[in-house]
Amino acid sequence: MKMNIRLFNLKKYFIIASGALFISLNAQNKKFTLVIDPGHGNQNGSARHYSDLGEVREDHVVLGVGLKLGKLLEKNKDIKVIFTRTSDVLPSLTDRTNLANRSKADLFVSIHCNSTGSGTTAAYGTETFVQGPDQNKANLEVAKRENSVIYLDKQDEQNFASYDPSSPESLIALKLQQSKYLASSLMIGGLVEENFVKKNNRNSRGVKQANLHVLRQNAMPSILIETGFVNNYDDAQYLISEKGQQEIAESIYDAILKYKKASERNNAPQISQEVPEKKEEKKLDSDYRIHIITSPNKYTENDPIFRGLNYILTIKEGNNYNYYYAVTNLESGKIANLEKVKSAGFNNAKAVAFKTNEKLKRGYYTIEVAVSDSRLRNNDKIFQVLGDVNREKIKGVFHYTYGNVNTLESAVKLQKQIEDKGINNTVIEKK
Known about the structure:
The protein is α/β, with parallel strands linked by helices. It has three domains: 32-266, Zn-dependent exopeptidases (Aminopeptidase, 3-Layer(aba) Sandwich), CATH 3.40.630.40; 283-356, Sporulation related repeat (Alpha-Beta Plaits, 2-Layer Sandwich); 359-431, Alpha-Beta Plaits. The chain contains eleven helices and 16 strands. It has helices at 58-73, 93-102, 137-147, 154-160, 168-198, 213-216, 233-240, 242-267, 331-343, 381-386, 408-420, and strands at residues 32-38, 47-50, 54-57, 79-83, 107-114, 126-131, 204-210, 222-229, 286-295, 312-317, 320-328, 350-355, 365-372, 390-394, 397-405, 427-430. A hairpin with a 2-residue loop joins strand 10 (312-317) and strand 11. Helix 1 packs across helix 8, helix 5 (168-198) packs across helix 8 (242-267) and helix 7 crosses helix 8 (242-267). The two termini are 41 Å apart. The relative contact order is 0.14.
């Protein structure tokens, strides 16, 4: 079976947050409660028949993985495991989410198999979804396929009938809800995908956002794991085997334990890890900032995703926003800042060098002052205060930028001048 050992690309797959916003347990002696949701059931879900393998059914595969995962987890006395199903039945999406919410679960793990739903069998590998607005057409197709089960249950059809995922109201409500648990979900999702690559030699398609009903109504960190494609022969052969299902279960199990340990450590009293500056310490040749995450989403500095970190510098490149913490030209400061970001849960954070006053060899820096679905009026405050503002329409969205400088330091200074004039939530953009 041909497998790609390459780790998922952080920039390519929305943010893969190495890190996370951890949700505190209600009490220190409370058991960590986990809901395992083997998706679909009762002959619902993806399926493919092979002459030598027989019928490979999603509902059977994920039930096998889920039960194996539960067996591993139940060995831990401080973990309480709850199943949405343990047999070939089809619980409604409402039943699944209500069970998780009533149980006050700390984590919800939904297990599925993927399918392209077309004649092609080229797609293969794993991917994990967290709740969020659809980021691209491919994710939207996954959301449509997984959400289609609501029409099989009258209760779901009634509950979700008025929900339009494309409406502005739904997207606004979704963004507010997802920010509370997004970072935690991203972390556990990243750990799962990392294990699939490192432990099982699987091809990871990354951690992505999609608007999935089974995740949307959960009041806890939640992930939906696509364990492989039933319409890809190599994946199907692996998924239907006892060895494959056990390996998948063990990788998810290990990720859950790491997530649990990290969340408990994060909730414990923290001792400052700041390294005192030594007078004799020599300055570095470059300024160092700590890269936190990359995302197509624009966040403000006080967004809960940063878990209290401040001094955030945002630099937009292409369609993605890169978020950096603090700046220093001392080795001790670099180490301290990196440790601080990692202690907040961003385990894949790294120090990035920025050569002081280095001019861009290509392109320039500008300041993104506004992004709007509709064209701003000529009397808008931005035009009155700044005057010469550039407008660009990209995929139906209006982007407004101001200025043209060739060093990051000049861009930071320009941004400060703009915000001093009352234009807030601006972003440095590298063109």
